[in-house]
């Protein structure tokens, strides 16, 4: 339902992440507002469980088991008290429901609502109303007052790495130690004395290093790489994926493309989120036949774990470059330091197309073998604020 929001999901998540407030997102439909009913999506259920507000799994069906708690609608200058009803109807399978009393007076269909817990109550922010969202930055407003309570101090344990990077920057342009796209990262790690390895843990004493070339055109940054779970993927294997959806170029079968959840790419590949199974799926869309077939599966819990594991702290190092191939040189100029990502935002950013996936695959030799350079989950640097708390940018040279 987030894809139907009348407001940019990434911008709203960035606003709350900047103030280190964890939120769940809801988008009421016209029918929902008329019938006073909204589905408690997986994102909402997980948030309510993690904050201790409510556990739908332990709730029996029927109106007699409804749970009612206090809630507030946030206005720029005041809080309007309401109630939230949490229940599972007797009909069907008892799909979890949530409703805020008098919501129809506060929100219109397809407004984006950000819901958060504070001191045991739920607060609803109509993020589609600019004046309400802007009150986050006004310490004198009710929302701004709450936001001030959530801000944390900076982690000071980064000086050693910053000093080492500054020493490297003082060397000016250094020649690549490996031709190709990965040279900028491999060269930096070698200069820092980090041995090459295939481990998924952070690179430098708990800090992940991501080096990239500074370019005029905005590029996407890789968050992590994660192979699909082939055991629950209908396509069954990497070779089947490549052979069914790849294309021939320069005498080789390849599948190099970007995939997101907003629209099919030129190959008809598109992401979707299955909230009930907690899966990210890659589908194949045939628009002319109005068919959509499930092809590949990643369990979302695995992806959330990879994001959490990979980026407790990250240094995103930018380098200016000159030359090409084996004669390319790098001058490491700046670093953006981000702290632990807001993992709860990950699913919403996938659904809204802010985070996308790159396939980098080709046939190896004449056999049914795949040269696999990873299934890369990427985000534009301008969208970092939607995923990471406020970052610090350091100029190295």
Task: Summarize this entry quickly.
This protein has 397 residues and is α+β, with helices and mostly antiparallel strands.
Protein architecture, described:
- The chain has 397 residues and is α+β, with helices and mostly antiparallel strands.
- It is 21% helix and 33% strand.
- The protein has helices at 9-18, 30-35, 42-50, 130-134, 142-150, 159-169, 183-191, 238-245, 300-310, 345-351; strands spanning 24-26, 38-39, 67-74, 79-87, 97-100, 113-118, 121-126, 174-175, 208-213, 220-225, 247-249, 252-259, 269-274, 279-286, 291-299, 313-322, 329-339, 355-363, 370-380, 392-395.
- The strands form four sheets. A seven-stranded mixed sheet has the order 1-6-7-3-4-5-2, with helices on both faces. Strands 8, 9, 16, 17 and 20 form a five-stranded mixed sheet that branches.
- Strand 13 (269-274) and strand 14 form a beta hairpin.
- The two termini are 46 Å apart.
Q: Structural class, judged by helices and strands?
A: alpha+beta
Radius of gyration: 23 Å
The percent range for strand residues is: 25-35%
* Residues in helix, %: 10-25%
User: What is the terminal-to-terminal distance?
Assistant: 46 Å
The overall average pLDDT, rounded, is 90
**Major beta sheet, strand line-up:** 1-6-7-3-4-5-2
Secondary structure tally: strands? 20
**Main sheet record:** 7 strands, mixed
Question: Residue ranges: pLDDT <50 for 5 or more in a row?
Answer: none
Pattern of helices and strands: HEHEHEEEEEHHHEHEEHEEEEEHEEHEEE
Organism: Qipengyuania benthica
Domain MvaI/BcnI restriction endonuclease: 164-388
Keywords: Endonuclease, Hydrolase, Nuclease
InterPro entries: MvaI_BcnI, MvaI_BcnI_cat, MvaI_BcnI_rec
């Amino acid at each position: 339902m987030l894809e139907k929001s009348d407001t940019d999901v990434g911008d709203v998540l960035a606003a709350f992440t900047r103030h280190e407030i964890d939120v769940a997102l809801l988008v009421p439909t016209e029918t929902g507002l008329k019938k006073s009913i909204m589905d408690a999506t997986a994102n909402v259920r997980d948030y309510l469980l993690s904050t201790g507000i409510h556990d739908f799994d332990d709730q029996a069906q029927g109106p007699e088991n409804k749970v009612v708690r206090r809630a507030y609608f946030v206005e720029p200058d005041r809080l309007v008290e309401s109630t939230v009803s949490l229940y599972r109807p007797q009909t069907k399978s008892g799909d979890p429901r949530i409703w805020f009393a008098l919501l129809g007076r506060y929100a219109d269909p397809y407004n984006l609502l950000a819901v958060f817990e504070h001191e045991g109550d739920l607060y609803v922010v109509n993020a589609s109303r600019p004046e309400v969202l802007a009150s986050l930055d006004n310490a004198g407003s009710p929302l701004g007052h709450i936001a001030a309570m959530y801000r944390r101090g900076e982690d000071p344990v980064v000086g050693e790495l910053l000093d080492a990077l500054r020493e490297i920057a003082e060397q000016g342009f250094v020649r690549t130690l490996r031709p190709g796209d990965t040279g900028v990262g491999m060269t930096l790690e070698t200069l820092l004395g980090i041995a090459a390895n295939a481990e998924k843990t952070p690179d430098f004493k708990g800090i992940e290093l991501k080096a990239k070339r500074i370019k005029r055109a905005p590029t996407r940054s890789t968050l992590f790489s994660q192979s699909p779970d082939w055991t629950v993927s209908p396509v069954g294997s990497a070779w089947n994926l490549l052979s069914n959806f790849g294309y021939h170029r320069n005498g080789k079968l390849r599948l190099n493309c970007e995939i997101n959840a907003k629209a099919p790419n030129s190959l008809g590949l598109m992401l979707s989120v299955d909230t009930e199974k907690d899966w990210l799926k890659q589908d194949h869309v045939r628009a002319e036949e109005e068919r959509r077939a499930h092809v590949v599966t990643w369990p979302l819990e695995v992806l959330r774990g990879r994001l959490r594991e990979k980026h407790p702290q990250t240094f995103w190092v930018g380098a200016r470059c000159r030359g090409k191939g084996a004669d390319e040189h790098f001058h490491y100029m700046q670093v953006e330091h981000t702290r632990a990502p807001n993992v709860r935002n990950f699913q919403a950013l996938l659904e809204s197309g802010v985070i996308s996936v790159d396939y980098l695959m080709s046939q190896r030799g004449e056999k049914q073998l795949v040269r696999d350079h990873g299934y890369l989950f990427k985000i534009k640097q301008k969208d970092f604020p939607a995923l990471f708390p406020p970052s610090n940018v350091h100029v190295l040279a």
